[in-house]
Amino acid sequence: MCDAVLRRERAGQTLRSGERKRRGPPGRTTDTLFKFILLIVRNGRSAGLREILEMFRVLHDEKIGLVTVEVTTAVALSDELQSELKETLAKKLDKTIELRPTVDEEILGGMVARFSGMVADSSLKTALDQMEDRMLSLKLGSELVHED
Questions:
Q1: Model pTM?
Q2: Which of 9, 33, 87, 117 could be bridged to 41 by S-S, CB 3.0 to 4.6 A?
Q3: For residue 75, what are the contacts with CB-CB under 8 A and spacing of at least 6?
Q4: Which residues is 68 bridged to in the sheet?
Q5: What parts of the chain have a pLDDT lower than 50?
Q6: Which long-range contacts (CB under 8 A, 24 or more apart) does 114-123 make?
Q7: Residue 24: Cβ within 10 Å count
Q8: How far is CA 79 from CA 84, 99, 120, in A?
Q9: DSSP letter for each residue of 59-106
Q10: Which residues are CB-contacts of 90 (< 8 A; sequence separation ≥ 6)?
């Protein structure tokens, strides 16, 4: 949508003040939002338009209680598992959940869930990395002495 507004603005097809007819994509934006986007473009702030709209989406989702959870697993989740995960997260967070599943074989197993600036990492790769770190760190409580 942003690109369409920018193209129309560059072509000189803008709304005149007081004009009620919207020239934006029908059914996709409100008149207020469309006029807001045009205001940003006219004031030379179009470089930040995507960031502004993304922040607006985040604020809107917070207001309506929607949390987008990006879930990464080593194999694709079945529809049934996605539904169960969505239901469990909805109960724990007391929010409406939108899942965005992705597959990354490098996590080996388990899952990584990212939402609201937080990460819940129960991947096998992270568990193995942590185990390796613990095994390699010395916790002997005294200095090492070379045996000769």
A1: 0.61
A2: 9
A3: 103, 105
A4: 98
A5: 12-22, 24
A6: 114/69, 114/70, 114/71, 114/72, 115/67, 115/68, 115/69, 115/70, 116/67, 123/72, 123/74
A7: 19
A8: 9, 11, 21
A9: HHHHHHTEEEEEEEESSPPPHHHHHHHHHHHHHHHTSEEEEEEEE-GG
A10: 96, 97
